[in-house]
Design goal:
The protein is of the alpha/beta class. Helix content is 40%, strand content 21%. Helix 1 packs across helix 3 and helix 6 packs across helix 11.
């Protein structure tokens, strides 16, 4: 047996022999038979070219080489077990790890502060990188450059992705304080008559609201479209435009605006947390997922 044939089991066998200095006791430690342990000792002697254990009267004693190995093998096995063992909850507090989260504007403003405060206490060495989501391409998750993503799962979501619902959201209307639409409960007539700023990221897709209105042979009045909620709300603050946005996702962004119920009912929007299955067994990643899910489900 050459040195390149040594594996983790061989190291565990050597460790047991160095501790017990007795073949029978070492066999019991590893749940082996004495004959199996004796054969294992033979292979170790051959590969290391040293007897390791020799008879000394009624007992066995360690050779100088074996004594020297005691100071080397124990830390080595401890390090191997640390590497191979899953990260436990008790290790999270001292774990240094960087995670990249891809999300649309609004998520950081609404949930970022709460998440950062929690990590400062329970995972102070975690580094978070929030990056903007400009499309629904899942390639970053597949390649590993993105760890987690917030999204509405749809036809563009890869079938190889994992997902969990963060929360159910809904659309609301927003306008500047003092806007005429705030003088009375908006009707569907006053809603469609107002000038809208639309948030459009894909001009090939029809918005759920426009799809709903189309069935009623109605159309929103709009000459302005932007690519983000932030841009839409900036225009709303300083014009007579109104916008329709997801309520929870843009809560902090709309804190200084007039909010109103839409004069019709739409299906709720299930916002999900997305990741690649390569991270399913990653304990630190799983821990962070659970933290985000819990924080987003806290009102």
């Amino acid at each position: 047996m050459s040195i390149d044939k040594l594996d983790y089991n061989s190291l565990r066998t050597l460790q047991a022999l160095l501790i017990e200095q007795n073949i029978t006791q070492a066999a019991k430690r590893l749940n082996l038979s004495p004959s199996a342990m004796s054969r294992a000792l033979g292979r170790l002697r051959l590969s290391m070219q040293d007897p390791l254990l020799i008879r000394a009267g009624q007992k066995m004693c360690l050779t100088p080489r074996a004594i020297a190995l005691q100071h080397e093998i124990f830390p080595l096995i401890e390090q191997i077990e640390k590497i191979l063992s899953p990260v436990s909850a008790t290790q999270i507090e001292s774990l240094a790890r960087c995670f990249t989260l891809r999300c649309s504007e609004g998520f950081v403003e609404n949930f970022g502060p709460r998440l950062i405060r929690y990590l400062a206490v329970h995972a102070p060495y975690f580094e978070l990188r929030f990056v903007m989501k400009h499309n629904k391409n899942n390639q970053g998750l597949r390649e590993g450059s993105i760890d987690l993503e917030t999204t509405v799962v749809g036809q563009s979501t890869g079938l190889d992705m994992r997902s969990r619902i963060l929360f159910q959201d809904r659309f609301i209307g927003v306008a500047r304080m003092g806007h005429s639409i705030s003088q009375a409960t908006p009707s569907i007539e006053s809603y469609i008559a107002a000038q809208h700023v639309l948030v459009v990221r894909d001009f090939n897709k029809i918005h759920p609201i426009d799809s709903y209105l189309k069935k009623m042979q109605l159309t929103r009045q709009s000459q302005i479209s932007v690519a983000s909620f932030t841009a839409a709300l900036a225009l709303v603050r300083h014009t007579d435009l109104i916008a329709t946005v997801p309520e929870r996702y843009t809560d902090q962004l709309c804190s200084d605006l007039y909010r109103f119920e839409l004069p019709f009912d739409l299906q709720p929007i299930p916002l999900s947390l997305l990741w690649h299955p390569r991270f399913d067994a990653d304990q630190a990643h799983a821990w962070l997922r659970q933290v985000i899910l819990a924080l987003c489900n806290t009102n």
